[in-house]
From TrEMBL, chain A:
A matching Pfam family: SMC_N
PANTHER family, A to Z: DNA REPLICATION AND REPAIR PROTEIN RECF
ATP-binding among keywords: yes
Gene Ontology process terms (BP): DNA replication; DNA synthesis involved in DNA repair; double-strand break repair; SOS response
Protein name listed in UniProt: DNA replication and repair protein RecF
TrEMBL record, chain B:
Zinc finger region(s), C4-type: 54-69
Keyword DNA repair: yes
Every Toprim domain range: 77-171
Transmembrane segments: none
CDD domains, sorted: TOPRIM_recR (cd01025)
GO MF terms held by the record: DNA binding; zinc ion binding
Family statement: Belongs to the RecR family.
Function: May play a role in DNA repair. It seems to be involved in an RecBC-independent recombinational process of DNA repair. It may act with RecF and RecO.
Name of the protein in its database record: Recombination protein RecR
SUPFAM superfamilies in the cross-refs: Recombination protein RecR (SSF111304)
PROSITE patterns: RECR (PS01300), TOPRIM (PS50880)
Highest rank taxon of the organism: Bacteria
Length: 401, 194
């Protein structure tokens, strides 16, 4: 794989490989007792960096730390205490960002095992709500395990939707937390065999919060359908795929052309709960609501399209996962009004060479922000051109080459 | 264990008091004149002996019925339902309310084993005897407080009593710019014509 294959096309001049319209970039990251990092400070150039190191040296850990400042959780689904370096009692991550006008913003997060205390600060101050600090750095991670979103269980797909919507919709996270709380209470009440009138007391809140979640998810999928199909087609070299939202509440029927309004969803949700009341009582759990939603991926022409999860090849599933992240980046870009930081964690290892090249072409064709790429082999970075500074990572230490 | 440790360990049972604070309070009481410490002890004793639940509204009071239930100047056509007796002080201190109260003793929370039977709901329904025209539900705007309000609304439902809920929105004297998104959204959806 040589850069020669990837000479920027379509009138893009050399040197604009990843664009110049950076909204924000990560200038410095400081890690203390995070995974295998003891005490490490790294400066990154505005354009980005290529991180090279053998497996187990900390490449993914570093990206995990950076993305921790985006959602204040591990993108690998690890619990906070698992992120603390072995034999220590806390970790801390601090990122310094430079914004468009040159202003510096510091986002930091620390977690202490004792008392399970998490502290998040923005420029040194604790925000009133967690939600205010979320999404502050504006980043996306592409990882090889993204394929699980497409090929794994539905919980991974709901988690994907919840993260992106929490980042771009101002109230989504608060509503989601409210929904989960009501759901837990309602399930407990079902387990205890509560009276229908006590159960009904929880329905109102469940439906109210639930419909806000359904509406946000339905809107996002409707807006991103075309983009997903376009990215899939480009990466796969002409194949077709689609993404559809399959809510656990049946879509309210009516005029197909008219957009479904909130009132329609509320009625449909209440109706579903009513029909399921007997089964819910027997089973002791809530059987309808956004906690049982699905996101359906299909490949092929619309007439003979098949489910990607059950019938797609590994290559098709990986392609769909990359397309989904591309769509996520597009969503973030629209919300930020600028370029997200793109992190690629060894993704090219999983894609065949033509697909890898097309992914890089896509990245090159659009105006992306700072790019951080990891790989075990320096050769992989031929793909990315010479524009990225190289760093070696070994046993939790990082140095610029 | 010494009497000092004894008292300190009693203090640690209070909400928000840890071991260190407990000893600090204990040593403070050792430093002040003994009669002052005894006055505190007597105040606690008197409170524990004399304060009880009002048999009508479940408020905490020295008299049964309580001073709200027996006060002839209070508006007997309105009952304000609160979660805890301490909420009464907040509402009555506002000076904006002259009706009666009813203390639920908590809110619905299956996770804590609290269902309608654990709350003073039946005694509230028993008070809706024709004279009462409005019930104001002033439970907290939490997930549990909202579910409790919904439950009460349905339970009171067909008794010919108007059921209202406290409004939610912007704090008086607050700056719109500093209000959080959830509060502003609530204030918008609950906006009123002028």
């Amino acid at each position: 794989m040589k850069l020669g294959h990837l000479e920027p096309r379509g009138g893009l001049e050399k040197g604009r490989f990843f664009g110049y319209f950076y909204r924000v970039f990560l200038q410095r990251i400081q890690l203390r007792n995070f995974r295998n990092f003891e005490d490490e400070t790294v400066d990154f150039p505005e354009r980005g960096a290529a991180l090279i190191g053998d497996n187990g040296q900390g490449k993914t850990n570093l990206l995990e730390a950076i993305y921790y400042l985006e959602i204040f959780r591990s993108f690998r689904g690890a619990r906070d205490e698992q992120l603390i370096r072995f034999g220590t009692d806390h970790f801390r991550v601090e990122g310094s960002l430079v914004e468009a006008g040159g202003a510096e913003v510091t986002v930091a997060a620390a977690y202490r095992r004792e008392g399970r205390r998490k502290k998040v600060t923005l420029n040194g101050d604790e925000p009133q709500r967690f939600g205010e600090a979320i999404g502050r750095i504006g980043a996306i991670v592409f990882t090889a395990s993204d394929v699980e979103i497409v090929a794994g269980g539905p919980a991974a797909r709901r988690r994907f939707l919840d993260i992106i919507l929490s980042l771009v919709e101002p109230d989504y996270l608060a509503v989601l937390q409210r929904y989960r709380r009501i759901l837990t209470q309602r399930n407990e009440s079902l387990r205890e065999g509560a009276s229908p009138s006590e159960l009904a007391a929880w329905n109102h809140g469940l439906v109210d919060a639930g419909c806000s979640i359904i509406e946000a998810r339905a809107r996002w999928v409707a807006e991103q359908r075309a983009g997903f199909a376009r990215y899939y087609e480009k990466i796969s070299g002409g194949q077709q795929a689609s993404i559809d939202y399959a809510p656990s509440i049946p879509k309210p029927t009516g005029d197909r052309a008219a957009p479904i309004d909130r009132h329609g969803w509320i009625e449909a949700f209440h109706g579903r709960l009513q029909r399921l009341a007997e089964r819910e009582r027997r089973r002791g759990v809530t059987l309808a609501g956004p906690h049982r939603d699905e996101l359906k991926f299909r490949v092929g022409n619309s007439s003979d399209a098949v489910g990607l999860r059950s019938f797609g090849s590994a290559g098709q599933q990986r392609t769909a996962a990359v397309a989904l992240r591309m769509v996520e980046a597009e969503t973030l870009r629209a919300a930020l009004g600028g370029e997200p930081i793109i992190m690629l964690d060894d993704v090219f290892a999983e894609l065949d060479p033509p697909r890898s090249e097309r992914v890089v072409e896509l990245l090159a064709a659009e105006e992306w922000g700072q790019v951080l790429v990891t790989s075990p082999k320096p050769s992989e970075f031929a793909l990315m051109g010479d524009s990225l500074a190289e760093y070696r990572i070994a046993a939790g230490t990082l140095r610029r080459v | 264990m010494s009497v000092i440790d004894d008292l300190a360990s009693e203090f640690t049972r209070l909400p928000g008091i840890g071991r260190k604070t407990a000893y600090r309070l204990t040593h403070y009481l050792l430093k002040i004149p003994p009669e002052e410490a005894c006055r505190l002890a007597r105040a606690i004793e008197a409170m524990a002996e004399r304060v009880r639940r009002c048999s009508i509204c479940n408020n905490l009071s020295e008299s049964d019925p309580c001073e709200f239930c027996t006060n002839p100047t209070r508006d007997r056509t309105v009952i304000c339902v609160v979660e805890e007796a301490s909420d009464i002080a907040a509402i009555d201190g506002s000076g904006g309310y002259r009706g009666l109260y009813h203390v639920l003793g908590g809110c619905l929370s299956p996770l804590d084993g609290i269902g309608p039977e654990e709350l003073n709901v039946d005694s509230l329904l028993a008070r809706l005897n024709g004279e009462v025209r409005e019930v104001i539900i002033a439970t907290n705007p939490s997930v549990e407080g909202e579910a409790t309000a919904t439950y009460l609304h349905r339970a009171i439902g067909s008794r010919g009593v108007q059921v209202t809920r406290l409004a939610r929105g912007l704090p008086v004297g607050g700056d719109l710019e500093y209000a959080d998104g959830v509060t502003i959204a609530q204030a918008l959806s609950g906006r009123r014509g002028m």
